[in-house]
Amino acid sequence: SKSRGRGISIENDLRVILEKLHADEKLVAQRYIEYPLLILQRKFDIRQWVLVTSINPLIVWRYSHYYLRFSSVEYSTQLGEGYKFAHLTNQSIQKKCDTYGSAIEGNMWSREQFHSHLVQQLGAEAGATAAAGIEEQINEIVSCTLRSVCDVVEPRTAAFELYGLDLMVDRAHRVWLLEANSSPDMSRSAAPLRRIVDEGLDDLVDVVLDLQQKRVPVAKLSAEREKRAGACWRLAYKGRAIEETELMRRRFRKKCGVDALTVTRALAAGTGGPPPAGAARGGEVSSRKGTGLGAKVLWN
């Protein structure tokens, strides 16, 4: 799909899905979340802003005030005419619906409104527990998502990047990653966004300047921000620096097909012979032939 929900379609016929994938190798097929959590009988997703101030070592900050984006019509499993208004929560799509904003102002809720809803529906203790569990899952998804790609992104000094992660919550309050977006929408089109955008951008500048101009250590800055009133960005992940040889090894593995078996076969093919000696099933093999990486690989 492209930005603003363009190119997204929902199919319930495997043959149609396979035909589309064969016709366009750039398409991505995702399993549909069959039992989404509904509010006012409507689907919603969560937009979570993420700030990356360093790739190597990976340093990720999560914005405290995520927000919810709703569909304009009630949820239905039917895929009839206008089904996108029930299934896809992208604002660019929803604004074309005649009932946009009729049930929920701007089709958006703040994080605080969501937490209040959980307490109202589940009770004070259970609602607070559910909200805390969702927050914990979001933080884990944020760190795992960036960790999975940090080794293929070229690091640049004195730079930062802002991402928008789209997440969905199911009926069991499990959180799922839908997609990650660069250059997320920062418009002030709805009431929940006006405060969030203004405070978020101001505080983002503070984080970047503290790190790059004042040279405040990450651990110290994180501790200070936990105590600072009005600080919106919280440290989500701080990794260790990865050596160049390790980066090369990881990139090679991903280019060859991600799994270690593919790498081992590539190494074996490079020598024109069988798998390296000692490559018993489940064993670990060290080899420098054909790659210059000194990579340790698994043979299954």
How does the SSE layout of this entry go?
Layout: H1 14-23, E1 44-54, E2 59-63, E3 67-70, H2 84-87, H3 91-94, E4 108-110, H4 111-122, H5 124-147, E5 161-169, E6 175-182, H6 191-212, H7 218-227, E7 233-238, H8 244-255, H9 260-271, E8 283-287, E9 295-299
Antiparallel strand pairs: 1-2, 1-3, 1-5, 2-7, 3-4, 5-6, 8-9
In short:
With about 300 residues, this protein is an alpha+beta fold. It has helices at about 15-25, 85, 90-95, 110-120, 125-145, 190-210, 220-225, 245-255, 260-270, and strands spanning about 45-55, 60-65, 65-70, 110, 160-170, 175-180, 235-240, 285, 295-300. Residues about 270-300 have low confidence and may be disordered.
Q: Kindly estimate the percentage of residues that lie in beta strands according to DSSP.
A: 15-25%
CATH class placement: Alpha Beta
Structural class by secondary-structure content: alpha+beta
CATH topology (fold) name: D-amino Acid Aminotransferase, Chain A, domain 1
Question: Which key terms come to mind for this protein?
Answer:
disordered C terminus; alpha+beta; single chain; 300 residues; 9 strands; seven-stranded antiparallel beta sheet; D-amino Acid Aminotransferase, Chain A, domain 1
